[in-house]
Design a protein that fits this description.
- By secondary structure, the chain is mainly β.
- It folds into two domains: 143 residues, Rossmann fold; 64 residues, Immunoglobulins (Immunoglobulin-like).
- It has two helices and 13 strands; from the N terminus they run ββαββββαβββββββ.
- The chain has a six-stranded mixed beta sheet with strand order 1-6-5-4-2-3.
- α1 crosses α2.
- The chain starts with a strand and ends in a 5-residue tail after the last strand.
Amino acid sequence: MFFFIFVPNTILMAADFLQSSMKKNWQLILPALKVPPKWNSTVSFQDACYQSLNQQFDGTLYEVVKVTNLKFYDSTAGKKRDLIIEPESPVNTGKNKSDDTLAFWLKFRTGFKYSRIAIPLKREMYTTLTDSIAYAVYKTAQSEFLGELQLQGGPAGCTMSISNVFDITPPCKLRLPVGVYNIVTHYPNFTTRNDSVSVYAGESIIKRILLLPVE
């Protein structure tokens, strides 16, 4: 089980990995998190988190979706690669330190893999708190739930269909949920090729595919 303690850092944008114009194929599900005791913004805490997460995950294949209550959200209709943020259940230890830390869990929508994220609540951080949350969620997803796939190949302008989910033209670099992906590469007057690639959490895979002309 992975525990992530957030340390303030520069916000990294995910737009380096995919064009934001690409279709969002998976969801990052955001329920109503526990509101920090000193939160006094006119914007609700969930809306503020949504805005920061939306910005952080721009350029990825994840669409941020707000839900009012996880209990009423249909988890069986979703895709296995959807991610969900789950509030941490309070634990009575006799010493209440919940006001000092915001803790929640990130997991795939179906499955048993969880990663805990804990963010210290300090007065000077409140102006950038939701950006810190978005950064921590992205970095946790990047290291625990996503892998990098670099696709190369030719001829120039060929199309690669990734597991019938989306099409791309190499060269490109993608952040994808872990798993096995089928790649169908085609180009006029060239032989279509079928390949597969396994994506592992926190790792970078380079896949080079070359087509041969039709004889």
